[in-house]
Amino acid sequence: MPTWWTEVVPTVALLISAGALIFNALNVRSSAKSKDLEWLFRYLADMRGMEAKLLSSATESERQSTFVEFANFLEVCCYAHNKSLFPKLTKAMVTDNLVNSIAIIENSTYAASFERLLTSTQTFDSLAAFRRRHSKPISHAQLAIKTAGPAVEDASSEPQAECP
Length: 164
Description:
Elements (H helix, E strand, L loop, with lengths): L3 H52 L4 H23 L5 H19 L4 H9 L5 H9 L1 H14 L1 H4 L11
């Protein structure tokens, strides 16, 4: 003969379990957002460092070496992008950043070097694939750079002002 507590206890246990599942789901979601933000900051810091190193190169030899290093960094980023290794929100920002970086490079003194890197066999495959897949946004970014005039084209040779 069942008593009231044999019906209440399983119901309470079920409600507690459901509450724990909801709590865990919220924690997982919060953790994913934090990880996404962490990836974004890491990517932006690395990109800023590579760009600064490129801009501060003193000799032509150092500039070419640093440019190849920057292109390798872009290749790794494009590989991660193409394989969907970035979290969702970071991927969107990385896409915009890569599109702009490629557009700036193609409108700079590095354009010929960049083209040679992309047309060599078995190197920079991910960067070339990203460039093909995003050719329209890259073209729009290049157009924006050209219509903005020399100030944007020369921005790669001038230090950037820091935000307060």
